[in-house]
Amino acid sequence: MRKKLIFNGQSIVLTWLISYIVILLLPVVIGLLLYVESNRTLKEEIQQANDSLLKQVREVMDNQFKAMEQLNFEITWNVNVQELLYSNKYETYPKDLPYDTYQIAKSFSMYKTSYPLIDSFYVYLNKNQSVILPTTVRSKDFAYETLHKSDDFPFSSWQSIMTRSNFKGFIPMYRIGDDNSLRKTVAYISTYPFEHDQPLATNVIMIDQSRILGAIQNMEIFNKGHVLILNEQNQVLASSSEGTMPVDFPYANLDQATNFYFKSNDGEKYEVFNIQSPRSKLKYISIMPSTTYWQKASHIRNLTYLSMLISLLGGGILTFFFLRRNYNPVRRLVHAFSKKQSIESSKTYNEFHFIQEAVDSTLIEMADFKSKVEQHRHIVRSHFVEKLLKGKLDGKIPIAEALTTFDMKLDRKEFAVMLFVTDKSEAFFERITNTPDEEKWKLLQFIVSNVVEELVSQRHRGYVAEIEDTLACLVNLSMEDGHSAKEELLRIAEEAQTFLASTYDIHLTIAISNVNEHISSVPQAFLEALDAMTYKLVMGGHEILAYNDLKPHTHCENPSGYYYPMGVEQQFLNALKFGELSDARQILREVMEKNYEGSGISVSLTKCLMMGLVTTIMKSLNDTGGMQESFFIRNPKQLDRLLNAKTVQDMELQLDDMLTQVCAYTAAKRQHANSITKQKALQQLVEQVNTYIEHNYTDVNLNVTMIGSHFDRKATYLSKLFKDYVGEGLLDRINKVRIEKSKQLLKGKEQSVGDAAYGVGFNDINAFIRVFKKVEGITPGKYKEMLEK
């Protein structure tokens, strides 16, 4: 049988095996995803780091190159240099040329001090084939011998650079230092304009490559790869290594991508990062061997593969072990259940499904049996409680024995009866579809019974019985904590009413009897609850009604009605409409005192009086146009709280709260109406002032004082009103109108600035120009020029 179950196509063994394999592959897949994500993140971090370091290199070097360009600018526009190159002085006084050249050389020594980052500079004069250096002047041959002579940089190359036309930029060069050693240098070459197809002169400013590399050698990128600086012609100006650029290096890619992969002809692989200087157009390039670049990624890849291999080997061994171990209990259960339920030899099946079907079948049989027993027991117990409430118990059977039979305990001293009548259940029935009305009603009774018994049993003992359409609950109270029995019954009733209304939309009327001290008084308590329920149904509403609260009012009907004459109602209405809270409270207090002096009016007339007062309140809101915005609309439960009040004092408190809200609303309504009237008057005044300014802007005497006099108001007060409404003062408004009118006058060609100024009320042209520039941002003369263009 074991082999049959294991090789069964639907066996749990196959399901477990697939599950274990999926669980085993899950960390492998997660590991692969982590590897891919970490590889991508690492690449981005390396790229960002290299890009950041290159930007640091660019920032450092751009400052150096900016100093070279600044020095070139100062040399080019030096007064003495300009005179030397462009004046005709030396045609008349040729002997002054050597002296002036020497003076320029002396002035260059000042530049040497001002630019300590510059290693060397000079000006090559093409006309007399000489070179001006700081403090000295040399011939071109001697200058080449002392400054650049080397096999790598022949005289012909230097001469072609010095005579190049229309060139300004950076190139690589060699120079001889103060220690007579040959040094690589970056030179900034700038030629002067042509004369006879040759430049007049050429500026040469140099910074040694060692100085450049010294500024960036502490950066991490310097140590990991090769850092190069190229000019626009892709010539290497500076390099962190002695090697040259690969012959097959794709220079075209530098303008297309900031980083790319490159493989040289010799098989070496590189990762290239580059950025360009927006100022000098130089390219800053980092070339890093791929082996260095991907060293961390390779380490992570190896760790990932190793962890996957370990997971697969270990998981495979554990899968086989747990599969055999976990299947043995299942096999034994199937063998046990198969004795009661036959298994067809040719049928494939799942072990768990077989066990589940066998257990479900057993549980269904037990549940059916238990449900039938419980239903029968509940019906019998309900009949017993009903007979106990009505006093119709069979005297032959002792009560104690009957209680034991139905598992009931009534061993406390205080007894009471609560009746529950459903007032409104349409919403509950609408939620239940495809069910007969009789079944819906049974479900409602079942829910109410269980909720009530649960609430009562939290502290006491309670048993519910169905009596026609009413549910009756026999409550055996336990009051060791010193609380009032009546308060406890009211608490239970309120909790039941609230819970059923909010959860199931079941609304109840609840009647509570007096508390009695012996089980023999239960029939009397049931009659008291019925009396309270009858009185409640006559009154209407959804209140919780205690019998001892209603008893004093059952014989107090006042045939003369209640006090609330029409004159008092009109006074009350006027006080509410004008928001006079104190007057409204005084009138309400007088009405309540006159109605409740002595024994007071009945409950029925009390409700009529309350409705009359509420009607007056609603009239006041309707007269002020606020019925739809009133608190009655926003607080629909306000009237319910008033009608559900338990005492006259509670009703008076609810009315006082309503008066406070209504008076606050009507007072705010009146204040808002006054504010709108004031705003309209202010708007009309502002419009009149604007019209007056439009009509009198040409008057030179037009000012704030004149406008205030015209409108019979203080000038400062009128200006403040105008500014509060418009956002600008009267004087600013006058100036803006005048400037707008002057702009129209300036459009005429025959109109001058002075004519425009006098034409709009300015008697001082300087004041007009100052105000025009303040408003428009330019002078009227410039404005007129713009119009003419």
TrEMBL record:
Gene3D superfamilies: Homeodomain-like. The keyword Nucleus does not apply. SMART domains: HTH_ARAC (SM00342). It comes from the Bacteria. Residues 687-786 form the HTH araC/xylS-type domain. The chain crosses the membrane at residues 12-36, 303-323. Keywords: DNA-binding, Membrane, Transcription, Transcription regulation, Transmembrane, Transmembrane helix. Pfam families: GGDEF_2, HTH_18. This is HTH-type transcriptional regulator YesS.
